[in-house]
Amino acid sequence: MDQSHIRNFCIIAHIDHGKSTLADRFLQKTGAISDRDMREQFLDQMDIERERGITIKAQTVRLKYIAKNGQEYQLNLIDTPGHVDFNYEVSRSLAACEGALLLVDATQGVEAQTVANALLAMEQKLELIPVINKVDLPSADPEKARKEIEEILALDATGAIEASGKTGKGMDEILEAIISHLPSPRGNPLASPRALIMDSWFDAYQGVIMLVRVVDGALKVNQEIHLVNVGKNFTVQKLGVFTPVAQPVNELQAGEVGFVIANIKEVRDTKIGDTITDTANPATKPLPGFKEIKPMVFAGLYPTDPDQYEDFKTALEKLRLNDSSFTFEPETSLALGFGFRCGFLGSLHMEIIQERLEREYQLSLITTAPTVVYEVKTTQGETITVDNPAKLPEVQFIDTILEPYAKAHIHAPATFVGPVLKLCESSRGMQEGIQYFGTERVLITYHIPFGEMMFGFHDQLKSVSKGYASLDYTITNYEPGDLIKLNILINSDPVDALSCIVHRDQAYYKGRELAAKLKELIPRQMFEIAIQAAIGNKVIARETVKALRKDVIAKCYGGDITRKRKLLEKQKEGKKRMKKVGSVEIPQEAFLSVLKVK
Amino acid sequence: MIKMKNNPLALYIHIPYCLEKCPYCDFHSIATQKKEIPEEEYASLLIAQLIHEVERLDLRDRSLISIFFGGGTPSLMSPKFFDAVINEVMGHFNSDADLEITVETNPATATFENFKQWQSLGINRVSFGAQSFNDILLKKLGRNHSSAQAKEAIQEALDAGFTNVSCDLIFGIEGQSFKDLENDLETTMSFEIPHISAYQLTVESGTPLASWVQSGKFHLPQEEVLAQMHHQVAAKFENHGWHRYEISNYAKKGFECRHNLQYWRYKDYLGIGSGAVSFMNGKRWRTTRKLSEYLKRDWFYEDEETINEKTAQKERWMMSLRLAEGVLMTKQEKEKWKPMLLQWEKEGWIIDLDNRMALTDKGFLFCSRITQNVFALIDEM
What we know:
The structure holds two protein chains of two kinds.
Chain A: E1 6-13, H1 19-29, H2 47-52, E2 59-66, E3 72-79, H3 87-95, E4 99-105, H4 112-123, E5 127-133, H5 142-153, E6 161-162, H6 171-181, E7 194-203, E8 207-216, E9 218-220, E10 224-227, E11 232-235, E12 238-242, E13 246-249, E14 251-253, E15 257-261, E16 275-278, E17 297-303, H7 309-322, E18 327-333, E19 337-344, H8 347-360, E20 365-367, E21 371-372, E22 374-378, E23 383-386, E24 398-413, H9 417-426, E25 430-437, E26 441-449, H10 450-453, H11 457-464, E27 470-481, E28 483-490, E29 493-494, E30 500-503, H12 504-521, E31 529-535, E32 538-545, H13 561-574, E33 578-581, E34 584-587, H14 593-596
Chain B: E1 9-15, E2 17-18, E3 30-31, H1 39-56, E4 63-71, H2 79-92, E5 94-105, H3 112-120, E6 125-131, H4 135-140, H5 147-159, E7 164-171, H6 178-190, E8 195-200, H7 208-215, H8 223-239, E9 243-246, E10 249-251, H9 258-264, E11 269-272, E12 277-280, E13 283-287, H10 291-295, E14 301-306, H11 309-320, E15 327-328, H12 331-336, H13 338-347, E16 350-353, E17 356-359, H14 361-364, H15 367-380
């Protein structure tokens, strides 16, 4: 199709502002899906996505639309991932679009992710169409939403479309606005091909499938292609588009969106943001914006049952086939045995992977407290990266420890400024700005050690703001910090999996809290258990779990041995999620207790 | 399966009738008035089942060490009932010279006359469910007899000529003090009976007691108090010549309960009557608990289970660890588990009796945990 009849767009929205429902309506409206085949949130394919109401992988769908002017258009809806942990992926999906619908919930107004993604879209010079959604709800206040779009995002919202994904109101208007307001793609159809990889995944039958936006030239079946940043060549076997079912095509032309299958075995060869070009006739310059994505949060994952180690390894390999942003390498812990140190983009990413491992692969896992990656300058003049507190060099070899910092944008009603600032300050943040929009909304910008905000911060922010504040962040740089390692000893043995790196000013407090928390979590056993927190050799806190005096001692008459055996077996199974450290049984939650200390 | 005619058998006969259900009890029985109990019918059914089982399992002339009438409340049955059943049993087995015949007895149900008649029928052991000699505590337990009745019943059994008399006590009752327990122990010992069972009140799921505890209507003593009571009981009896041969059982030498030892030593038993469990030839099963079906001669088996080697190993340990004599270890167990056994010995939980392993008094208090650890070791084998 000629480019003037193509529109590539995405929907920018905060979580729960109705993005998926709106997308569902487009599918129905354009006849891509019959009402009979319609199911809720069609584009969110994974169970986890549907349950959590977030999109993890990017999706595209090509819609055929006959406009009021009688002409046929090809609309490509690009559904972007929707969470702060996936900022870079979002930026690459946006780069594939010329415009976006800025969807704002009429009952909620503009929120942090609306702002963050709108800013990203503006950076990419995308044309925005404001849509005020959920106007059918009794608590809807479209005027307020309109005002916020103007004040907070400095966008003209006079023409904002009032819509309801639920009732279908405003759908025609939106589709027409896409044709009239959004620019068509303007690539050079005759140049050497350049296509942007938006996402990729592994399919057991077809190998890696890449989701691409062709910018210049065209991709053809049997073409030899070159992946610029990876530096590898492949042959195109199959091209296609999602309507939303996969439909093969012979060619993807400039301006179009679709998928490419090229006998690629490893997802890591298809990096998000990379450029596909022709091997024989390569483009002179790759598409801008490519970044190597690195995991920022690390944790040790261990099977509770050592016999599951091989299954666990296989599961990780399979997951990694589909998610190149997550890494793993074998790790041994004195406390937990054989496992893997896994790297994630953020805490949500970690939860998702862990959940998929347990749910899809039936594994029972113990996770250690996640940590950020520290850079350590040693006294010998080396710089090493530390993604596991247990691997921190001895104090005498440390010159400086540097920790990652993030720039956090917090969007909140003005009434919650006090508690939000307090939270940021207690997380060792440095204020960079407070910007008021009208009298009701405020955007607070902080420079915060990422280690302080990678886990729990979001929940606390929600709790201090009664759920109204929202957060967006980007990792910016590394800075030296007065950091030390806090060790936990159980019956005098250091437990590597419980050690953590903390700021010196917080060490005493955290040591005491952590020991107290562990006392709560470790059940009484047949002997006394001493829990100590120590910095180096200096014990700074001690708690004791008193010895259990006795079991439940049931009588045993009447010969019903089976029932008694089964009861004991059941109790024994209940202990399986505990890990034995020396002779002490430590429950799974204890390894995450460091996160519960604030 | 190798037939072991010489492998002795114990016979359990279940009487699933009580006048009232005790709120803590989860044994199979129904509350009924005495005159409503279909005694003759039940006796004829037991006999029919016995004949059937002897045939089915090829038990003829097997040597028999015990007949145990348990319940329920067997003492509700008349001497005629016992006469009929015992006579039938004797006709099928080769009874041991020391054959033990026990009747579980509720103190409110038996009379001197009865005891006299039981004696003539060959019943040689009476086991009283006295539970406590404190009327307030008896009430808390929902027992239908008084302390005075219990004392009287025990005395009558002794007077009637029974030498092998046992008394069951329960401790850890809400409001029970150490002094209260001491009084119960003293009273029990004052009868000079050769066997005492003293067990901690356990909350069985599905019983009224369980829901009382759940709702806060009944308070169990603190763990420390219970541990203390266990020691109090053990010390008292052992200082006065009753040796602790099982976690909750104390006896004068030679008066250990042969029937229960059969369970704990993991040996064969046949159970007849509604709800009775049997175990032999690597199989366990239960005669239907549906009394109405049983009474229609429509009895069938429930929870049939084939015990594989590993499960048998676990069960053998689970049962034998309750005994002071401990477990006879196989060579493999002894070798493979050495590090664990040494550690437990160091902790004072077990004693190494040459080829046997036994729990100490301290170890008895952790019997369940230690058993679970053994299960884990067996799983790894």
